[in-house]
Design brief:
alpha/beta, 12 helices, 10 strands, ten-stranded mixed β-sheet
Protein backbone atom coordinates (compact mmCIF):
# COMPACT_ATOMS: atom_id res chain seq x y z
CA UNK A 1 0.00 0.00 0.00
CA UNK A 2 2.86 2.34 0.89
CA UNK A 3 4.51 1.62 -2.45
CA UNK A 4 1.25 2.37 -4.22
CA UNK A 5 0.82 5.69 -2.39
CA UNK A 6 4.41 6.68 -3.12
CA UNK A 7 3.96 5.92 -6.81
CA UNK A 8 0.68 7.86 -6.89
CA UNK A 9 2.25 10.91 -5.29
CA UNK A 10 5.20 10.75 -7.68
CA UNK A 11 2.88 10.57 -10.66
CA UNK A 12 0.85 13.50 -9.35
CA UNK A 13 4.02 15.55 -8.97
CA UNK A 14 5.03 14.77 -12.51
CA UNK A 15 1.59 15.52 -13.89
CA UNK A 16 1.19 18.86 -12.04
CA UNK A 17 3.44 20.88 -14.38
CA UNK A 18 1.71 19.24 -17.35
CA UNK A 19 -1.71 20.24 -16.04
CA UNK A 20 -0.50 23.80 -15.51
CA UNK A 21 0.75 23.97 -19.09
CA UNK A 22 -2.52 22.57 -20.35
CA UNK A 23 -4.44 25.16 -18.33
CA UNK A 24 -2.33 27.95 -19.82
CA UNK A 25 -2.82 26.54 -23.31
CA UNK A 26 -6.58 26.48 -22.75
CA UNK A 27 -6.63 30.10 -21.51
CA UNK A 28 -8.81 31.87 -22.33
CA UNK A 29 -11.67 29.39 -22.51
CA UNK A 30 -14.32 32.03 -21.81
CA UNK A 31 -14.70 35.83 -22.21
CA UNK A 32 -12.34 38.02 -20.20
CA UNK A 33 -13.58 41.10 -18.37
CA UNK A 34 -11.41 44.24 -18.54
CA UNK A 35 -12.42 46.64 -15.76
CA UNK A 36 -12.05 50.38 -16.36
CA UNK A 37 -12.55 52.61 -13.33
CA UNK A 38 -14.19 55.39 -15.30
CA UNK A 39 -17.30 55.96 -17.38
CA UNK A 40 -17.57 55.02 -21.04
CA UNK A 41 -16.40 57.63 -23.52
CA UNK A 42 -13.58 59.04 -21.40
CA UNK A 43 -9.89 59.01 -22.27
CA UNK A 44 -9.16 55.78 -20.38
CA UNK A 45 -12.18 54.02 -21.86
CA UNK A 46 -11.23 55.01 -25.42
CA UNK A 47 -7.79 53.41 -25.13
CA UNK A 48 -9.04 50.45 -23.12
CA UNK A 49 -11.39 49.47 -25.92
CA UNK A 50 -8.60 49.63 -28.50
CA UNK A 51 -6.31 47.50 -26.33
CA UNK A 52 -9.09 45.06 -25.42
CA UNK A 53 -10.04 44.45 -29.03
CA UNK A 54 -6.50 43.86 -30.25
CA UNK A 55 -5.30 41.96 -27.18
CA UNK A 56 -8.30 39.66 -27.51
CA UNK A 57 -7.19 38.79 -31.02
CA UNK A 58 -3.67 37.96 -29.82
CA UNK A 59 -5.09 35.73 -27.07
CA UNK A 60 -7.57 34.16 -29.50
CA UNK A 61 -10.38 35.14 -27.16
CA UNK A 62 -12.86 37.86 -26.32
CA UNK A 63 -12.25 40.75 -23.93
CA UNK A 64 -15.24 42.78 -22.78
CA UNK A 65 -14.73 46.24 -21.29
CA UNK A 66 -16.62 46.73 -18.02
CA UNK A 67 -16.89 50.36 -16.84
CA UNK A 68 -16.98 50.67 -13.05
CA UNK A 69 -16.80 54.41 -12.53
CA UNK A 70 -16.88 56.15 -9.18
CA UNK A 71 -14.74 57.52 -6.33
CA UNK A 72 -12.00 58.71 -8.67
CA UNK A 73 -11.46 55.25 -10.11
CA UNK A 74 -11.37 53.52 -6.72
CA UNK A 75 -14.51 51.45 -7.27
CA UNK A 76 -12.97 49.76 -10.30
CA UNK A 77 -9.71 49.14 -8.46
CA UNK A 78 -11.52 47.50 -5.54
CA UNK A 79 -13.62 45.44 -7.95
CA UNK A 80 -10.48 43.93 -9.46
CA UNK A 81 -8.79 43.43 -6.11
CA UNK A 82 -11.73 41.28 -4.99
CA UNK A 83 -11.95 39.31 -8.24
CA UNK A 84 -10.72 35.74 -8.56
CA UNK A 85 -7.07 35.77 -9.69
CA UNK A 86 -7.71 33.41 -12.59
CA UNK A 87 -6.89 35.72 -15.48
CA UNK A 88 -10.53 36.33 -16.41
CA UNK A 89 -10.59 39.76 -14.77
CA UNK A 90 -8.14 42.38 -15.98
CA UNK A 91 -7.61 45.91 -14.72
CA UNK A 92 -7.04 48.71 -17.19
CA UNK A 93 -5.39 50.88 -14.54
CA UNK A 94 -4.69 54.59 -14.82
CA UNK A 95 -2.64 57.19 -12.98
CA UNK A 96 -5.55 57.40 -10.52
CA UNK A 97 -4.32 54.26 -8.71
CA UNK A 98 -1.20 56.00 -7.38
CA UNK A 99 -3.08 59.19 -6.48
CA UNK A 100 -5.54 57.36 -4.23
CA UNK A 101 -3.21 56.65 -1.25
CA UNK A 102 -2.48 60.39 -0.94
CA UNK A 103 -6.10 61.48 -1.34
CA UNK A 104 -8.12 58.90 0.56
CA UNK A 105 -7.61 57.67 4.11
CA UNK A 106 -8.92 54.23 3.09
CA UNK A 107 -8.99 53.82 -0.70
CA UNK A 108 -9.71 50.11 -0.30
CA UNK A 109 -6.66 48.86 -2.17
CA UNK A 110 -2.88 49.06 -2.32
CA UNK A 111 -1.71 49.87 -5.87
CA UNK A 112 1.68 48.28 -5.24
CA UNK A 113 0.62 45.08 -3.46
CA UNK A 114 -2.84 44.05 -4.64
CA UNK A 115 -2.14 43.58 -8.34
CA UNK A 116 0.24 41.91 -10.76
CA UNK A 117 1.50 44.55 -13.22
CA UNK A 118 1.77 43.42 -16.83
CA UNK A 119 2.81 46.46 -18.84
CA UNK A 120 2.21 50.14 -19.33
CA UNK A 121 0.15 50.74 -22.45
CA UNK A 122 0.04 54.44 -23.22
CA UNK A 123 -0.01 57.94 -21.81
CA UNK A 124 -2.29 60.74 -22.96
CA UNK A 125 -0.90 64.29 -22.78
CA UNK A 126 -3.14 67.02 -21.44
CA UNK A 127 -3.99 70.21 -23.25
CA UNK A 128 -4.30 73.52 -21.46
CA UNK A 129 -7.47 74.76 -23.14
CA UNK A 130 -9.46 77.95 -22.69
CA UNK A 131 -12.86 79.17 -23.75
CA UNK A 132 -12.40 81.30 -26.90
CA UNK A 133 -13.86 84.31 -25.07
CA UNK A 134 -10.73 84.37 -22.90
CA UNK A 135 -8.52 87.00 -24.62
CA UNK A 136 -5.27 85.05 -24.37
CA UNK A 137 -3.48 83.18 -27.13
CA UNK A 138 -0.34 82.15 -25.28
CA UNK A 139 0.44 80.81 -21.82
CA UNK A 140 2.22 84.05 -20.91
CA UNK A 141 -0.81 86.10 -21.95
CA UNK A 142 -3.09 83.84 -19.97
CA UNK A 143 -0.97 84.09 -16.82
CA UNK A 144 -0.82 87.88 -17.16
CA UNK A 145 -4.59 88.03 -17.60
CA UNK A 146 -5.19 85.82 -14.57
CA UNK A 147 -2.86 87.92 -12.42
CA UNK A 148 -4.69 91.07 -13.51
CA UNK A 149 -7.98 89.50 -12.42
CA UNK A 150 -7.14 87.49 -9.29
CA UNK A 151 -9.82 85.01 -8.31
CA UNK A 152 -11.95 85.57 -11.42
CA UNK A 153 -10.71 82.51 -13.29
CA UNK A 154 -12.38 79.12 -12.78
CA UNK A 155 -11.10 75.78 -13.97
CA UNK A 156 -13.01 72.54 -14.15
CA UNK A 157 -11.97 68.94 -13.72
CA UNK A 158 -13.47 65.48 -13.93
CA UNK A 159 -13.54 65.32 -10.14
CA UNK A 160 -11.72 66.30 -6.96
CA UNK A 161 -8.35 64.61 -6.80
CA UNK A 162 -8.37 63.57 -10.45
CA UNK A 163 -5.26 64.17 -12.53
CA UNK A 164 -7.08 66.99 -14.34
CA UNK A 165 -7.63 68.68 -10.97
CA UNK A 166 -4.02 68.18 -9.90
CA UNK A 167 -2.72 69.47 -13.22
CA UNK A 168 -4.68 72.68 -12.73
CA UNK A 169 -3.61 72.97 -9.09
CA UNK A 170 0.06 72.54 -9.97
CA UNK A 171 -0.17 75.02 -12.85
CA UNK A 172 -1.84 77.75 -10.81
CA UNK A 173 0.66 77.29 -7.98
CA UNK A 174 3.70 77.47 -10.26
CA UNK A 175 2.28 80.36 -12.29
CA UNK A 176 1.44 82.27 -9.14
CA UNK A 177 -2.19 82.86 -10.08
CA UNK A 178 -5.44 82.56 -8.15
CA UNK A 179 -8.14 80.41 -9.70
CA UNK A 180 -11.10 78.46 -8.36
CA UNK A 181 -11.35 74.74 -8.95
CA UNK A 182 -14.79 73.42 -9.92
CA UNK A 183 -15.15 69.65 -9.60
CA UNK A 184 -17.58 67.75 -11.83
CA UNK A 185 -18.75 64.17 -11.91
CA UNK A 186 -16.80 63.24 -15.02
CA UNK A 187 -15.11 65.18 -17.78
CA UNK A 188 -18.21 65.46 -20.01
CA UNK A 189 -20.10 67.95 -17.79
CA UNK A 190 -16.83 69.79 -17.11
CA UNK A 191 -16.25 70.24 -20.84
CA UNK A 192 -19.87 71.30 -21.35
CA UNK A 193 -19.45 74.15 -18.85
CA UNK A 194 -16.11 75.14 -20.36
CA UNK A 195 -17.71 75.33 -23.80
CA UNK A 196 -20.51 77.43 -22.32
CA UNK A 197 -18.06 79.79 -20.65
CA UNK A 198 -19.08 78.92 -17.08
CA UNK A 199 -15.44 78.02 -16.48
CA UNK A 200 -12.54 79.65 -18.29
CA UNK A 201 -9.82 77.01 -18.59
CA UNK A 202 -9.07 73.35 -18.05
CA UNK A 203 -6.42 70.67 -18.42
CA UNK A 204 -8.02 68.04 -20.61
CA UNK A 205 -6.67 64.85 -22.28
CA UNK A 206 -5.94 65.50 -25.92
CA UNK A 207 -8.20 62.70 -27.13
CA UNK A 208 -11.15 64.34 -25.36
CA UNK A 209 -10.40 67.88 -26.48
CA UNK A 210 -8.87 67.78 -29.95
CA UNK A 211 -12.19 67.85 -31.81
CA UNK A 212 -13.24 70.98 -29.91
CA UNK A 213 -9.87 72.60 -30.58
CA UNK A 214 -10.00 71.88 -34.30
CA UNK A 215 -13.57 73.18 -34.53
CA UNK A 216 -12.60 76.39 -32.74
CA UNK A 217 -14.90 75.71 -29.79
CA UNK A 218 -11.85 75.68 -27.51
CA UNK A 219 -8.40 77.23 -27.83
CA UNK A 220 -5.32 75.19 -26.93
CA UNK A 221 -2.50 77.16 -25.33
CA UNK A 222 -0.07 74.34 -24.55
CA UNK A 223 0.35 70.58 -24.25
CA UNK A 224 1.92 68.75 -21.30
CA UNK A 225 3.99 66.27 -23.33
CA UNK A 226 7.77 66.57 -23.70
CA UNK A 227 7.38 67.06 -27.44
CA UNK A 228 4.71 68.71 -29.53
CA UNK A 229 1.92 66.51 -30.81
CA UNK A 230 1.84 65.72 -34.52
CA UNK A 231 -1.92 66.25 -34.31
CA UNK A 232 -1.48 69.86 -33.15
CA UNK A 233 2.00 70.88 -34.29
CA UNK A 234 1.39 74.59 -33.71
CA UNK A 235 0.59 74.11 -30.03
CA UNK A 236 3.76 74.51 -27.92
CA UNK A 237 4.64 72.25 -25.03
CA UNK A 238 4.17 73.78 -21.61
CA UNK A 239 7.91 73.25 -21.16
CA UNK A 240 8.51 75.55 -24.14
CA UNK A 241 5.99 78.06 -22.84
CA UNK A 242 7.20 78.23 -19.23
CA UNK A 243 10.70 76.81 -19.26
CA UNK A 244 9.70 74.33 -16.55
CA UNK A 245 9.64 70.54 -16.76
CA UNK A 246 7.41 69.96 -13.74
CA UNK A 247 4.30 70.17 -15.92
CA UNK A 248 5.45 67.29 -18.15
CA UNK A 249 2.64 64.83 -17.48
CA UNK A 250 0.03 62.60 -18.98
CA UNK A 251 -2.90 60.42 -18.06
CA UNK A 252 -0.95 57.17 -18.18
CA UNK A 253 -2.47 53.71 -18.33
CA UNK A 254 -1.44 50.09 -18.02
CA UNK A 255 -2.71 46.56 -17.68
CA UNK A 256 -2.81 44.61 -14.41
CA UNK A 257 -4.20 41.35 -13.12
CA UNK A 258 -5.34 40.59 -9.56
CA UNK A 259 -2.51 39.52 -7.30
CA UNK A 260 -2.04 35.74 -7.33
CA UNK A 261 -2.80 35.18 -11.01
CA UNK A 262 -1.13 31.96 -12.29
CA UNK A 263 2.36 32.54 -13.67
CA UNK A 264 1.48 30.75 -16.89
CA UNK A 265 -1.45 33.10 -17.46
CA UNK A 266 0.64 36.16 -16.57
CA UNK A 267 3.30 35.11 -19.07
CA UNK A 268 0.72 34.48 -21.77
CA UNK A 269 -0.98 37.85 -21.27
CA UNK A 270 2.40 39.61 -21.12
CA UNK A 271 3.53 38.10 -24.43
CA UNK A 272 0.20 38.89 -26.08
CA UNK A 273 0.20 42.49 -24.88
CA UNK A 274 3.76 43.00 -26.07
CA UNK A 275 2.70 41.89 -29.55
CA UNK A 276 -0.40 44.07 -29.37
CA UNK A 277 1.54 47.24 -28.55
CA UNK A 278 4.15 46.45 -31.23
CA UNK A 279 1.47 46.05 -33.89
CA UNK A 280 1.63 49.05 -36.23
CA UNK A 281 -2.14 49.35 -36.87
CA UNK A 282 -2.76 49.28 -33.11
CA UNK A 283 -0.09 51.93 -32.55
CA UNK A 284 -1.70 54.07 -35.23
CA UNK A 285 -5.11 53.74 -33.59
CA UNK A 286 -3.64 54.89 -30.27
CA UNK A 287 -1.43 57.67 -31.60
CA UNK A 288 -4.13 58.75 -34.02
CA UNK A 289 -6.08 60.24 -31.14
CA UNK A 290 -3.07 61.70 -29.34
CA UNK A 291 -1.78 58.90 -27.12
CA UNK A 292 1.90 58.04 -26.75
CA UNK A 293 2.51 54.27 -26.71
CA UNK A 294 4.67 53.15 -23.76
CA UNK A 295 5.07 49.38 -23.35
CA UNK A 296 7.78 47.80 -21.21
CA UNK A 297 7.65 44.96 -18.71
CA UNK A 298 6.38 44.45 -15.18
CA UNK A 299 9.45 45.97 -13.51
CA UNK A 300 9.32 49.10 -15.65
CA UNK A 301 5.65 49.42 -14.79
CA UNK A 302 6.23 48.99 -11.05
CA UNK A 303 9.12 51.46 -11.03
CA UNK A 304 7.09 53.98 -13.03
CA UNK A 305 4.20 53.74 -10.60
CA UNK A 306 6.44 54.36 -7.60
CA UNK A 307 8.02 57.44 -9.19
CA UNK A 308 4.61 58.82 -10.15
CA UNK A 309 3.18 58.04 -6.72
CA UNK A 310 5.95 59.96 -4.97
CA UNK A 311 5.69 62.83 -7.45
CA UNK A 312 1.98 63.38 -7.02
CA UNK A 313 2.05 62.83 -3.26
CA UNK A 314 4.35 65.84 -3.10
CA UNK A 315 2.12 67.90 -5.40
CA UNK A 316 -0.97 67.02 -3.35
CA UNK A 317 0.80 68.04 -0.14
CA UNK A 318 2.20 71.29 -1.55
CA UNK A 319 -0.98 72.44 -3.31
CA UNK A 320 -3.37 71.30 -0.60
CA UNK A 321 -5.47 69.48 -3.20
CA UNK A 322 -8.06 67.20 -1.64
CA UNK A 323 -11.16 65.23 -2.36
CA UNK A 324 -14.18 67.40 -1.60
Amino acid sequence: MRKFMTMALSCAALLAPLSQVQAADAYPSKPIRMVVGFAAGGSADINARIVAQELGKELDGTIVVDNKGGAGGNLGAVEVKRAAPDGYTMFYATSAVVLAPSLYARPGFDPYADYTPISLTATIPLLLVVNPKVPARTVDEFIALAKAKPGEMNYGSSGSGALLHLGGALFTKEAGIQATHVAYKGSAPAVADLLAGTTQFMFLPINESIAHVKSGALRALAITSEKRSALLPDVPTIREATGKTTMDMGAWQGLMLPRGAPREVVDKVTAALKKTLADRPTQERLTGQGSVVLGGGAKEYSDYMKVEGERWAKVIKETGAKVE
